Structure formats: structure tokens, C-alpha cells
Amino acid sequence: MSRVALNYIYNENARTRRPIIINKEMGNKINPYLLKKDFPVFQDKVDGRELIYLDNAATTQKPYTVIEAVRKYSQQFHGNPHRGAHYLSVKATELYDQARQKVREFIKARSAKEIIFTRNTTEAINLVAYSYGMNFIDEGDEIVLSIAEHHSNILPWQQVARSRRARLKYMYLDEDGRLSKDEVKSKITERTKLVCLTHMSNVLGTIFPVREIIEYAHQKGALVLIDGAQGIPHVEVDVQELNADFYVFSGHKMLGPMGIGVLYAREELLEVMPPFLSGGDMIEYVSEDTASFAPLPEKFEAGTQNVEGAVGLAAAIDYLNSIGMDKIHQHEQDLTAYALERMQGISYLTLYGPTDLEERGGIISFNVAGIHPHDLASIVDLDGIALRAGHHCAQPLMKYLQLVASCRISFYLYNTKEDIDQLIDSLDRARSWFSNGTK
Amino acid sequence: MSRVALNYIYNENARTRRPIIINKEMGNKINPYLLKKDFPVFQDKVDGRELIYLDNAATTQKPYTVIEAVRKYSQQFHGNPHRGAHYLSVKATELYDQARQKVREFIKARSAKEIIFTRNTTEAINLVAYSYGMNFIDEGDEIVLSIAEHHSNILPWQQVARSRRARLKYMYLDEDGRLSKDEVKSKITERTKLVCLTHMSNVLGTIFPVREIIEYAHQKGALVLIDGAQGIPHVEVDVQELNADFYVFSGHKMLGPMGIGVLYAREELLEVMPPFLSGGDMIEYVSEDTASFAPLPEKFEAGTQNVEGAVGLAAAIDYLNSIGMDKIHQHEQDLTAYALERMQGISYLTLYGPTDLEERGGIISFNVAGIHPHDLASIVDLDGIALRAGHHCAQPLMKYLQLVASCRISFYLYNTKEDIDQLIDSLDRARSWFSNGTK
Amino acid sequence: MELSSIYTELIMEHSRSSRNRRLLEEKDREERGHNPNCGDDITLQIKFAGGKIDDLAFTGSGCAISQASTSIMIDLIKGKGKEEALELIDIFLRLIKGDGLTEEEEEKLGEAVVLKNISYMPARVKCAVLAWHTLKELIKS
Amino acid sequence: MELSSIYTELIMEHSRSSRNRRLLEEKDREERGHNPNCGDDITLQIKFAGGKIDDLAFTGSGCAISQASTSIMIDLIKGKGKEEALELIDIFLRLIKGDGLTEEEEEKLGEAVVLKNISYMPARVKCAVLAWHTLKELIKS
Ligand SMILES: Cc1ncc(COP(=O)(O)O)c(C=O)c1O
Ligand SMILES: Cc1ncc(COP(=O)(O)O)c(C=O)c1O
Ligand code: FES
Ligand code: FES
Q1: Angle at C30 between CA C28 and CA C34, to 5 degrees
Q2: Which of A353, A361, B335, D77 supports an S-S bond with A204, CB 3.0-4.6 Å?
Q3: Would you say A205 and A173 are in contact if contact means Cβ atoms under 8 Å apart?
Q4: With 50 as the cut, is the pLDDT of residue A24 above it?
Q5: Residue B129 belongs to domain spanning
Q6: How far is CA B82 from the centre of its chain?
Q7: In Å, what is the CA distance from D58 to each residue of B318, D19, D20, D45?
Q8: Which domain holds residue C23?
Q9: Distance from C-alpha of A146 to C-alpha of A362, rounded to nearest angstrom
Q10: Rounded distance, CA D34 to CA D36, Å?
């Protein structure tokens, strides 16, 4: 139990709307009660109830600083970036470029040219599929996915495989929801052109050994795309150290606005890939019949970009940095340990995914005996608890697990042990009601 | 002069932050001085100067109501729409659906299924190019564009033409920047599969007779895509009456947020078109090797959508409706008449585009003798005037006009005659400085 | 809202009941209905006799609401003529859409009225209406 | 900022001057430089003699800032050795980047220091540096 006992720190700063910086001296833990004060959604009752938000894998809530950054941009600095000589256009360009730099630093990319803003993870993967996949993957090549991929990291590759007559191969999971070395080695071979793997399973919470798999794939001559939608928000990522070829993620899953996502790719790859979307500012010269393209990163950003989204994402990164990704990760691990410990003791619950904390993050899938997951989600919602039920956009994994649906909770920096306690109380009530009609 | 004399109405409501509704009884004109109060950017000095914003064709400023709608969504109602049973997810779904309905009503589409949210105009056109163009345009087919298209409505078609071995044909403009009937008839023929035309030229301000051209194209068996980036914000559009097959536009050019745009397409077309981006919520069933797709409109919206962008766009539409598109258009016509009248009298100016108000809207391109457009943009910026210089992402048109660059001013509901007067004063000063070193 | 006002005793009973969950020995037609976004599906089997719906039953799986709604529907519809059945389906769909029903209409729905509160749960509407849409297809096919 | 602090008299003069705008009768090499986002371009021609830049001139078109910067650059560079020219280019690029220069460095740039304020106009930086980048290519090629 000692590893899960949170050592809360009370901090006077918390009453202001500034991100809370926890001094090392005060212990190396964050205090989610204080962090919650930075998030307006937790200040008022939501639909008449205290909000217990356990759907962070779907999307996260936003701190004041992010909301304010977007508002301020929209009120004072809004212009169409690039090409304009006037103040607002220059200012928008500057803020957009700064946001790109901020992302670069956050993921430790070599150059800002390697940061392409997209709408979300899904679009980033589609960009790679259309621009890299449709042009560099050939008949007979193999694309290797894990069976735990989100639809967004499956469908584009189904399409590439179909169009290019390549082969899709899946790496299956062991009984604990892990990818075994043997499985990796038997699927990734000299024929593999691309490996597409999620950093963390959005269903099972498994954190895959991406660095090792990338290294192995590179030995075999394959490139690797890491779907970081559930990675970046929760663990420190250094794309150079990982040596990822492509790494993609969404702003809205890391405290940022919707409508902004990121494709990181190695510069050499982006250089040889043709543009995906075309039009607007991504050109140099256009004649009636042909065009030449702008250098990176503009080459991949067609039309007016979502500057306010990028500005909001930069503010989200500032907020995360002010807390520290290591502390955030530790906090989620503590919550996960506590939740697993409590939930494992409940006989009507079935839990899915690895039990070893070393191999997983703060996403827990489970089912309640005798209650359909969608009923359960509705019932706990009556107690103000937000969790997700369904296939989590991972139908192939669900089929592999022989499940139609599961309930899923997912943590972030503002969650508390109390959230978990309340969830379990609510599960208990649901369970009695469904078993014998009492609450 | 009588048609350009604005009949300003003073309205007490203006001091509150509500959209101003001008009663018919008070005259049929809007008062831009009052409207300006709805826009925070005009409340403070920008970079130490009063802002005179004449770059509306690039992007427009946002009223409080739009900024507030986005803020409120982000603070109180944010969730990942679709599939979630919990309150925030349901609320986000509801607001997203309402925004779609609002867009449908605004452009008078038959069904909300015909409204696909995209990032911007550029992405909407790319969607059509990839999904319709790459699948339904065949060798020998012709794609007819006007020479006045924005790069976003050229490059995707160059790519389709190249991949599908189709032919690109341009309709050229007459000396006044208009499309003649003869030109239309000589280019659109039985071989034409698709006509791509901007509603209003973003360089010359020409409003093309889109209804007539659509009718003619349909007679010849061709489909028509109207690039409404400069249409919807300025004139009332009824897509059914127009009978457009595709109509696309951007939120950020009509008072809305960045990162949200719209593709309208007739339901029958969307039904047969394959998905463009894939992943996330746009599916029904997914197996390891194949997938079936969700019905419209989800089929074309992959990944987590920009709900806050859609909510902001809905607020922008509310604002525009509260004024009335007819009044907005009339106001812009009044400003254009005034500007043309004043500018035509200045010998050092060369104006481009139609002189007849019936054929044009509030975008005016010009050059100042002896001053490079980019110098001019920098100089007027020193007076707080935002205008655009360059090729306006329409290089083929510029080449056709034998211009390297031009200056461009573009009006919206908050512009005043005074803005134009100040611009002209600033041009005069620039001109004297450049001619003889005095201001 | 209260747990007990949505998952009412009647709904819980029907969702657990196996009375209408069976295969018909003799059937005229069957129809499968499915909700792609939860993966649930049911199959309805029907037997007509003398212009009336003589027997009706279902198999398949889903949430408590879909299962209860199916069972309640079967109790209501069995023995009715085609036209009347279609009318009841229509009334029910309007109930769930949140349209106000007349007292007379509510009466016609009988027990099915307990599903009224589902109209306040947009995410679950699809569950309540699954069987009814499937039946409509079945009768019309 | 003031009009006169950017479009200074010296800049206006150079932008109008035709002294350095010509084709060399004898050239060793030439290099074209262009700014895609405005469409402007210039061509520099160079003639070396005894390890020095004996003659340098330009043709092409562009804004006042690019034309002035080109003309000022030619005045500064003509007669210099390759190494010194490259050093001056480097100092100038740092000036426009907004890096603080030492007094000594500013002195080396001579008239070119008038372009300093361009560092406050990000949209026009490309204009000020066009010729200098082109010359760098030309010398190094
Ligand atoms: C006519 C026209 N089409 C397309 C666009 C591109 O719009 P966006 O950059 O929002 O995609 C613009 C504006 O830049 C435009 O004026
Ligand atoms: C692992 C994973 N990949 C991809 C996605 C898709 O992200 P988005 O919807 O932001 O494109 C998600 C989240 O839904 C996810 O969890
Ligand atoms: S959740 Fe599947 S029918 Fe209710
Ligand atoms: S605007 Fe073209 S070089 Fe200055």
C-alpha cells in the first residue's frame, strides 16, 4: 500500500488561477485537489452534481490558462498568419511559430520543421497514410499493427494495404494484454515496411515498449509510426531518444483545445513525402498546370491554420511543464495502483489489462457482472461520474478479447483517490439495484 | 453619391455586448460604429494605434458573442461527442449537432446530413478532390476552373487531373474581370465533368453569376463546386436555389473561429463518395481487414471533431443573422461604391476589377504608382491600417493580369467610410514620401 | 434524475424476463436489428394468423433498456393487427423523441410508457427504439 | 514606428539609384535569388580580380527595401576579399535577425546599418536579406 499512499501537499498559491508548482522540497507529488482549482469545469456543479471526470482518454478538461490563451488571441491578436505585413498578421504568425517551437521542445524534436500541425491524431495518421503509405509502400510490403490499435491507426492502413496490394499483419497480445518479444519478432521481418503502434492502449492501459520495438523494427529496415494520442499526455516523450520515425498526437487529450493535433516526423522523411492537402500557403510558385511547394513545415499545412488551437496547445504545454511530466505520470501511477488494488478486491468486477504497474498507465477497462456497460455508464452518470462504455474505437481488440463492450476509466492530473472511492460506491449501488432492486 | 451616403442609425443597445438589431423602421442600414463595439479588437488600441482593419478577405475579427461561446463551451460543456453516455459527452454532442443544424439553416440545405465540418475551405476542397475527383473523374474528362481561383481551388484539381489523366481548362476573364457568357459556353462542354468556381474573386472582387453557370453546367451534364470562402460571409446563399453540387467555406472568414470550415454537398453525392479521412467515429463495424462506414455526415468526419470551433461558428451565424445578410451586403456595397468613387479620382492609383457595382463585392485590388505593394502594406501598417499585399494565393490570375503583386482592401460589416478616408490619407502620405521625401 | 426513475422495477423485470426471449417453432418472417455504435443486436421472429400478429419473440443481446423495451413491445403488440401495430410503433417512437403524447395515446402504449424518461437520455434513445424500428421493418417487409 | 525611421532617406535614395543596377560587361559568375512569397527576384553578377571582388552589380525587381539593400550591399562589398565579404554578410544577417552587434561590427557595415530597423518588421526581413543570401551563394559556389 505504501506506493499508493498519496502524500498531499497543500499550497497557498492554489487559490489563484496560476498553475501550481510543487517544490521538490515539499515532496515529489502533486496535489490534485489544488490542481482542480485551475480547471473551471470543476468549480461549478455540472448538471447539478459534482463532476467526477474519468473519461480523460476520450478528451481532457482545460485549465483557465488554456481557455484564456485562446480568448486573448481571439480578442487581441487575431489575423491570418503568413504573408501579411500588418501587425495582426505578423502577430498571428509569431504566435503560431512560437507554438510550433513549444511543441518541438516538448517532444524534443531536432527542428521545428519536423512539427506539422494537424486537426487531430486521426488526421495526422491519414496524412502519413496518404503521403507516405500511398507512395512508398509497394506490393508485397508488410504493414505491422498491434491488435490494440485505435480505429484511427487501423483504417488508414487497411486502405493503403488495399490500394498498394500490401499486407496487413497484426501483433497479438498475451493474456495480460502485453506484446511479447516473440510476437514482435515473429511479425516484424525483413518484409515489414512500416510498424504502427500505439504508445499506450486506450482500452487496456498497456504501455508498450516502444523504444525497444522501434529499435528492432529499424534493424529489420522498417519505419515506425507511434500513435501517441495516449502517450504524450501521460509520459515524458523524447522523440529523438525513442528514435520514432512518426509520432502523432492530439491537443484535446493533453489539456489543449480541440481542432489541433501534431504530426512529428523525421525531416528526411517529410522532405521526400509529397504534400497531402494542397492549396493556400503551401506553395512557392503556381502556374495553370503545375506548382512547386513551400519548404517544411508549410508544405504540409494547406489553407488557413488553426492558430488559436496552436496557441491553446502551447498554453497546455506550459501548464503541463509547470507541473512536470514526471510528477503527472507518478500521480497517475499512484491512482492506478490504488484503483487496481481496490477493484481487484471486488468480486463482481472483471478487470482487463496488465496488472503489473510497470507495464501500464492510468486507463482501466472493466465489466460489472450482470450489468451491460452502457447501462453502467448511464447509471454512474446519475452520480456525476463520467466514464466511457463501448468498444472504445478498438473493435478488433475487443473481438480479440471476446468482448462486445467494456467500461473504461482513465485518469489525469486532477483525479483523486476520492474519485475512485466514489466510483466504487456508485458501482456498488448499481450492482445492488440490478441484483435485487435496492440502492 | 446618394447611393453611397450612409444613413447611420444610433442605437442605445450598442453599449451592451449584444448583437445589434436594427429595426426596419429605423432605416434599412447598419451602423458600423455601433457594430464595432461588439468586437473586442476594436475596443483597445492595437500595437498603440486605432485599428483600421481592411484585410477581411484573409480573415475576419470576432465579436464577443463568438469568443464567449467558445469560452463557455470550453469551461462548462467540454466532452468528446458521440458514444459517451455521460453528461459532458451528451452535451458536446448536442452542441455539435445544433451547430450543424444552424449551418444547414443558414445555407438552406435540405438536410443536416449534407453539412460536413472540415478545418477550412482548403480541406473541404481537398476532400472533394480526393473522394469525388480521384474516384469519379476519368481519363479524358475535363475539369473547368476560372482563372480567378484561389490556389486552394487549383492545386487539388491539378493533382486530380494528373492522377486521373483528366484535362484542366481555364475560363479567362474579360478586361473588366468578368466571365463572359461566351467564355463560359466555350469552356464548359459535354466533356466537362466538374466546374470549380469561386463565388467572389478574392483579388478582383468580381461576384460571378454562379446560379447561371451552375444551370448551364448542369445542362452539359457537369457538376459544380462553388468556392464560397468569399461568398457566404458577404451574400445570402441558398444552396438549393443555387443548385450547387458542392459549396465550401471557412468559419474564420465569417466572424467564426479558426479551425472550422464546411463542405456542403448534395446528399446523393455524399452517399456514393467513399470516405476521405478514416478512423475514429466514422465507422460501423471494423474487423482486422475491412470496415463498414457510418451514415452521413459522420462518414466524412474522422477523429475527434472541433466542437468548440463548430460552437463558435454557430454563434457567428447567430450574430450575422441578428444583423441580416441583406443589410451586411448592402453596407459592403455602399462602402465599395464610396471607395471606388474616391479611389477612381486619384491619379496615382490603378484599380483592378469590375467597376459596375452589380457585378462585384467589397474587395478592391489596386496599386500605387512607384510603390511596391509590400512597401505600401508596411507603410500603411505604421498608420494602423491592415491591408494585404501580394499575389493573394491566386498566382495564375496575377500572371493573367500581368501583375507580380497588388494591394488589396476588403470590407466587412464593421468597416466605415472613415476607414476608407484614413486609408486614402495614408496612401497620400506614402506617395509624397516616396516621390519627394516628405510626408 | 434518479436511478429508480429510469431503471424502474418494471424495466428491470422485463430486462431479466425470458418469457419473450425464444425462437418461434413456426415463423413467417424474421428481422435482425442492430446498433452499430454499441455492437448489440436482436432478432425478431413473427407469426401471423388471420391478419393478426399471432406470435412474436426475440433473441439476441443488449443493454437492460433495449432488452426491456423489446420484451414490453412484444407483450403490447402480440395479438394486434398490422395497422394497429404500426400505429403503436409510431406513438412509441414519438414518446421517446420527447414529443408530448395525448393521454389517449399514452394509454394505448400501456406499460411501454415507463420508457418515457429515456427521452431525457439522448445517448440511450437508440436502445429504447431498436426493437420498435426492427418490428416496423418486419411488418412492412 | 515612424515612416522615416524605416524608409530612411538613404534607403529611398538607394532604392531609386541605378548606379549598381546593370549588367557587367565581363562577369565570372552570376546567381539568381528569389523570394517565392512575393515573387520578386534579383540576379547578381560578379567579377573577381586578384582575389578581390572587382565588380558586382544586379538586375531584377523587388520592393524598395530589397532594392536598397542590394545597392547598399554592392557599395559595401565591392573591392573586398572573399573572406571579408563573407564576414560582412554574416554580420549583416545577424543585424537583421535582431542580434545585438558590437560597435565595431556596426562600423564595419557602414551604411548598411540603416537597415537595422527592418529587424522589427518580421514580414520584411526576407526583403533585406535577399541580396546578401544570394551573394553568399555566389561567393561560395
Ligand atoms: C476564394 C478563396 N478560396 C479559398 C480560400 C482558402 O480558405 P482557407 O484558407 O480558410 O482554407 C480563400 C481564403 O484564403 C479564398 O479567398
Ligand atoms: C490511441 C488513440 N489513437 C487515436 C485516437 C484518436 O484521436 P483523435 O480523435 O483526437 O484523432 C485516440 C483517441 O480517441 C486514441 O486513444
Ligand atoms: S447499449 Fe446496445 S442497445 Fe443499448
Ligand atoms: S516584397 Fe519582394 S523582396 Fe521585398
Answers
A1: 170
A2: A353
A3: no
A4: no
A5: 68-320
A6: 29
A7: 56, 10, 6, 6
A8: 3-140
A9: 20
A10: 6
Q: How far is CA D73 from CA A162, D20, D77, D97, D115, in A?
A: 57, 10, 6, 17, 11
What are the backbone dihedrals phi and psi of residue A94, each rounded to the nearest 5 degrees, phi first? -60, -45
- Which position has the grid cell 489575423? A79
Which residue type sits at C79?
A: G
Q: What is the mean pLDDT of chain A?
A: 93
Q: Which residues contact D49 (CB under 8 A, 6 or more apart)?
A: none
In this structure, the strands spanning D29-35 and C52-61 are: unpaired
Do residues A240 and A304 both lie within one domain? yes
A389: closest chain C residue by CA: C38
| Cell 491591408 found at | B387
Q: Are A359 and A337 in contact (CB under 8 A)?
A: no
Pocket residues for ligand 2 (CB within 6 Å)?
Answer: A 57, 120-122, 150, 152-153, 198, 202, 227, 229-230, 250, 393; B 280, 303-304
Q: Which residues contact D83 (CB under 8 A, 6 or more apart)?
A: none
Distance in angstroms (rounded) separating the CA atoms of residues C113 and C31: 24
Cα–Cα distances in Å, from B303 out to A250, C9, D16? 10, 39, 55
Q: Tell me: the pLDDT tens digits for A164-185?
A: 999 999 999 999 999 999 999 9
Total structural domains within chain D: 1
pLDDT at site B322 = 97
User: Is the pair C, A in contact (3+ CB pairs within 8 Å)?
Assistant: yes
DSSP one-letter string for B246-266: EEEEEGGGTT--SS-EEEEE-
Domain co-membership, B371 together with B232: no
Contact present, B365 and B406 (Cβ < 8 Å): yes
Cα(A83)–Cα(A384) distance, rounded to whole angstroms? 48
Mean pLDDT value across residues D66-75: 98
* Nearest of A230, A244, A238 to residue A199 by alpha carbon: A230
The complex's ipTM?
0.95
Question: Is B1 inside any structural domain?
Answer: no
Residue B73 sits in a domain whose CATH number is: 3.40.640.10
Interface check D51 vs B, CB under 8 A: no
Q: Which residue bears the cell 463501448? A: A390
Q: What is the DSSP letter of A73?
A: I
* A295 upstream amide cis, omega within 30 of 0: no
- pLDDT at position A298 is 96
Nearest CB to C124; choose among B82, B85, B283: B85
Beta strands, E only, A96-149: 115-118, 142-146
**Residue D106's CATH number:** 3.90.1010.10
Show residues of chain A in contact with D126, CB under 8 Å.
none
Same structural domain, A405 and A430: yes
Interatomic CA distance for residues A263 and A23, integer angstroms: 33
Catalytic residue among A35, A244, A393, A409: A393
What is the spatial distance between Cα A300 and Cα B336, in angstroms, rounded to a whole number? Answer: 36
Asked if omega into B32 is within 30° of 0 (cis), the reply is no
- Cβ-based neighbours of C34, under 8 Å, separated by 6 or more: C40, C41, C42, C130
Q: How far is the CA of B375 from the centre of ligand 4 (A)?
A: 8
The predicted pLDDT at position A124 comes to 98
DSSP for C39-87 reads: TEEEEEEEEEETTEEEEEEEEEE--HHHHHHHHHHHHHHTT-BHHHHHH
Number of domains comprising chain B? 2
Mean pLDDT by 10 residues, chain B (439 residues): 27 38 59 97 90 98 98 96 89 97 98 98 98 98 98 98 98 97 98 98 98 98 98 98 98 98 98 96 94 96 97 98 97 98 98 97 98 97 97 97 97 98 98 80
| Mean pLDDT of the C46-59 span | 96
Assign B354 to helix, strand or coil: coil
Which residues have C-beta within 8 Å of that of residue A162, sequence separation ≥ 6? Answer: none
Mutation for C interface: B283, B284, B286, B293, most C CBs within 10 A: B284
| CATH code (residue B22) | 3.90.1150.10
